[in-house]
Design brief:
The chain has four helices and two strands, in the order H-H-H-H-E-E. By secondary structure, it is mainly alpha-helical. It has a two-stranded antiparallel ribbon. A hairpin with a 2-residue loop joins strand 1 (88-91) and strand 2 (94-97). The two termini are 31 Å apart. The mean pLDDT is 93. It comes from candidate division TA06 bacterium DG_24. This is Pyrophosphatase.
């Protein structure tokens, strides 16, 4: 994970995101929504670029962590410990792991 974060940080530095509104939270959220839409399109249209679209989303997510100063590894493990304590249940014919 650390190497991926360093690579995304280099990408941000190359394009000077910090000084060109590339760290604007609303802009970044719109980009993430766009990528989620592209993942959905790959699934529904049977496109072969599903892995690439997930990589795009991961790059944006790691970029968010850089822009918003989030330690994603720490946040991941904190959340993981909590979700592992939850029980699964069926909702609308699908399995869900929720806190309620």
């Amino acid at each position: 994970m650390e190497e991926m974060i360093k690579a995304v940080r280099r990408f941000h530095e190359k394009h000077d995101f910090a000084h060109n509104n590339g760290h604007d939270p609303f802009y970044r959220m719109m980009l993430m929504m766009e990528e989620v839409g592209e993942i959905c399109e790959a699934l529904t249209k049977g496109k072969e670029n599903l892995a690439e679209e997930h990589a795009d989303l991961l790059i944006l997510l790691l970029g968010n962590c850089i822009a918003f100063n989030i330690d994603i590894e720490e946040a991941f493990w904190n959340k993981y410990r909590r979700v592992m304590e939850r029980e699964a249940r069926w909702v609308g014919g699908k399995i869900r792991v929720t806190d309620g």
